């Protein structure tokens, strides 16, 4: 179907931060499949994990215990706030699972009237009917029938609006710590801490969508760690599979209490192939020094983007981000900047609020960051020339 406005380009292979087309042209990948290829392309550890598993066992269904799933869940529990993990295949499915967990928590606690979720304007939680309603973006909802009920939208970053929106029917607040698709809006630590306090006061759950920010992208394993608080439920996907479809809902024992046997499921969720890759991704990201390295590279990228802003003051109006999720706000149509970057063989990704995102693989090296910045600078030169023409 014609659901994507695709670039007319076919990649045939990839290695590290580089992609090669079927015609043999090399592109520097600062999009990472929109934060999916956390370890770049063809990472030897992921290739080994996947091929080894492929020779043993692909799928059994969740009718049986799945060893790789238990192992990965155990690792995630060890290194996060969570006590329980449910595996699925995508970000939207993880967000759906998080919404269901939050509603069902109140249901089994004897408060079935608590089912509404407070979400932020500018959010993106996926393309299923419930996650579209959760984000409330009219552009994506149009033509798909009545909006799924139960979501109350407030401005991102506005604690007072959340306080006022909480009512007797509220089950949870669901937020991206950094809004990615919405334009790389970083939730301040005070805001996230304030949300935690409001949720505790009201006896409702705090749900973080870390589908884009998770698994090292923010410079910490999860972005919530920057704020010093923890959510009750968290949706993850993208980076955890490093390119293999894998998502998960993480929750505390209490928040997971509603999702008992038979209440939720997913045929492919957490199958042996996916979880073998997920465990290998975690092994690499949790190696001593890896996340510190991401933070150093993020600083380098940030400083370079500040220089880009100095170089193009009327075109680049703001630089923002967290870790290796960076955004430049441009005085141009983001697709024009993306196209100009493509002409310089650099892949970047558009976002809302006139932002262009740079999401290099977490394994990017300093030299590649320098190269990416040079290409971006040339691309922005093309854009500013076409604007003055
Ligand atoms: N949540 C966030 C924060 C995302 O960035 C995305 C995808 O961009 C999703 C959910 C949806 O993920 P998926 O496309 O895997 O369903």
Could you say which structural class the secondary elements and strand pairing correspond to? alpha/beta
Q: Which hetero ligands occur in this complex?
A: pyridoxal-5'-phosphate
Integer-rounded radius of gyration:
21 Å
Cα-to-Cα separation, first versus last residue: 37 Å
Q: Tell me the strand percentage band.
A: 15-25%
What is the helix/strand order?
A: EEEHHHEHEHHEHEEEHEEEHHEEHEEEH
Q: What's the pLDDT, averaged over the residues?
A: 98
Shape: globular
Number of separate helices: 12
Percent helix: 25-40%
Main sheet: which strands, in order across? 4-12-11-10-7-5-6
Q: How would a crystallographer describe the biggest sheet?
A: 7 strands, mixed
Number of strand segments: 17
Unreliable stretches covering 5 or more consecutive residues: none
